[in-house]
Amino acid sequence: MRANEKVLVIENTELRKHNTGSDKWDRYLDDYNNYVKEYNKHYLNALKGDERSISLYPYMKEKWEELKKRLIKAYNNKRLSDRQIRRVVKINMKIVKACFK
Predict the structure, then answer these.
(1) What is the mean pLDDT of the chain?
(2) Where are the domains of the chain?
């Protein structure tokens, strides 16, 4: 293998490693987004007096706090791209909007 071919292989391998981590956080953000949708639904139903949603709400809030901590830690460790950070903010705004309905 020539030297320039070795460089290409190394560069492509490093690119794949970086994308894999990014893909992992994209999947976390997909899960976070779906969770926030479900959380908002139960929050609004709990306000209306739905007993099932009222009983689920504390557990869902606790899980949401854990997910949020994980994302904050990823942000502090510079593991999220700018696009992913914007996506986190957009998802968090869904919670804020639900609280003001």
Answers:
(1) 81
(2) 26-99
